[in-house]
C-alpha cells in the first residue's frame, strides 16, 4: 500500500536525520489567536509564517561557550527557518546574546541551555534594561519569533543566590529577556534557577506565553529572592496561559505601561500573587496599567492572591536595593475573575502604601496614582490565617484616588473561619465603605 511505503520512507528519512519532524505547532503556519483559550486576546495575534529550512546548533559539549554556534545558526536560519537545540545536548552560554535581529524564525529547544556562573562577566555584560536596574542574560526580539520545544533554560542561579546574600546591590541577570518582540510564541519550556525574575517582557506586543514550567530553589541557606514569573513593562496585547510557576515572588507582575493583557489558567505556588505594580515608584513618571483580565488562577502558599501595589506620594525605602515613591499614573479596567486560594496570607490586597510602614506618612502624602474600575469576582478558598481575623485589605490613601472598586462572589475564610476585610477610602460604587466591607464579609 502506498501510504505505508510513504510512512516507511518518512521514518527512514527521519531516522537518518535528513528531515526534521514537524512536531511543534509553529513549524507550519499557525494561528496564535486560536491557541488562546478560553479568553481571546484583546486584539488578534499575527499568524506565524511557515518555516522552510532547519539549522541545528553545534555544541562543544564540554562546558565551553556555545554562543558563537548559536548566533551563526540564527543568522543562517533567520527569515523563514527553524533553529534546533538538540535533545541530548547541553549548550553552554557564556556570552550576552543580542537576538533582537530575529524575523520569522523558530528556536526549538529540545535539549538544555545553561548559562555560565561567571558572575563578574555577567554583571559587566548582561543587557542593562534600566528599569529597576534589571539586566538580562540575553535579549530576544524582532518579529514573528517562536521559542519552544519543551527543553530547559537553566540560569545556574545558586551562585547568584549566595552572592546576593553578601551584597544586595549586585545585578542578578533575568533568565529570559523578551525585548522589542512583536509577534511571538514562547513555550512550552522549562525554566530553572533564574538568578532573579524569570521573564522580563519589555517594549513588546502580540506575544503568547504558554506551557511554561518554572521552578528553582536554593540548595543553601540563602533563598532565591525576587524570582518573579513574569514582569511586563511597556508592553501590550500579551497572553500568558497554561503554566505552572513554583517561585518566591510575584507569579505575574504588571509593571508600568502594561496594557491589554490576558493571564489565564495558571497554577502558582509559593509566590506573592498576581500583582499590578509596584507603580508610582519614580517621581516624574506616569505609570499606566489598563485593560487586564486575570482568569482562572490557582494560588497556593502565597503572600497574596490578587494584588495592586502602589508606592506612597513621597519617596521611601523598602530595602537596600528597592526604594521609591512619588510617581503618578493610573490603574484602570482590571478584572480578577476566578481564583482559588490555599494557604495565602491575603486573598485580595490593594495598597497605596507600598514600601512604607509609616501609615501617617502615607496619609500625609497620598498616592498620585488613581485606581478605577477594578473587579474582583469568584474568589474562593482558605487563607493562611496570618492576618486573622482579616483575609483581605483594600486600602486607598485618599477618597479621591480610588473609584469603582468592586468585589462580588468572594468566598474566602481563614483556617479559623474568620472572613473580615479591611477597607479604607473605597466608597464609590458601593456607596460607602461599610457597604463594601459588609458586602465582602457577607459573602
Ligand atoms: C562554576 O562553574 C564551573 C564549571 O562548570 C565549576 O567548575 C565551578 O566550580 C563553578 N563555580 C562556582 C562558584 O559554583
Ligand atoms: C524601550 O524603548 C524605549 C524607547 O525607544 C527605550 O528608551 C528603552 O531603552 C527600551 N527598552 C526598555 C527595556 O525600556
Ligand atoms: C539601582 O542600583 C543602585 C546602586 O547600584 C541603587 O542605589 C539604586 O537604589 C538601585 N535602584 C533601584 C530602583 O533598585
Ligand atoms: C507610559 O505611558 C505614559 C502615557 O503614554 C507615558 O507618559 C509614560 O512616559 C510611559 N512610561 C514609560 C515608562 O514608558
Ligand atoms: C483552569 O486552569 C486549570 C489549570 O491550572 C485547568 O486545568 C482548568 O481546566 C481551567 N479551568 C477553566 C474553567 O478554564
Ligand atoms: C510550593 O511552595 C512551597 C513554599 O514555598 C514549597 O515549600 C514547595 O516545595 C513548593 N512546591 C513545589 C511543588 O515546588
Ligand atoms: C475592559 O476589559 C475587558 C476584559 O476584562 C474588555 O472586554 C473591555 O473591552 C475593556 N474595556 C475597555 C473600555 O477597553
Ligand atoms: C504548599 O506548601 C506545602 C508545604 O511546603 C506543600 O506541602 C504543598 O505541596 C504546597 N502546595 C503546592 C501546590 O505545591
Ligand atoms: C511617620 O511619618 C510622620 C509624617 O511624615 C512623621 O512625622 C513621623 O516621624 C514618622 N514616624 C516614624 C516612626 O518614622
From TrEMBL:
Q: Which GO terms describe its molecular function?
A: galacturan 1,4-alpha-galacturonidase activity; polygalacturonase activity
Q: What domain of life does the UniProt record list for this protein's source?
A: Eukaryota
Keywords attached to this entry? Cell wall biogenesis/degradation, Disulfide bond, Glycoprotein, Glycosidase, Hydrolase, Repeat, Secreted, Signal
Q: What is this protein called?
A: galacturonan 1,4-alpha-galacturonidase
Q: What does this protein do?
A: Specific in hydrolyzing the terminal glycosidic bond of polygalacturonic acid and oligogalacturonates.
**Signal peptide start and end residues:** 1-24
Q: Please verify whether the record's keywords include Repeat.
A: yes
One Gene Ontology term from the biological process aspect of the record = pectin catabolic process
Catalyses which reaction(s): [(1->4)-alpha-D-galacturonosyl](n) + H2O = alpha-D-galacturonate + [(1->4)-alpha-D-galacturonosyl](n-1)
Q: Name one GO cellular component term.
A: extracellular region
Concerning InterPro entries, the annotation shows: Glyco_hydro_28, PbH1, Pectin_lyas_fold, Pectin_lyase_fold/virulence
Where are the catalytic residues?
A: 272
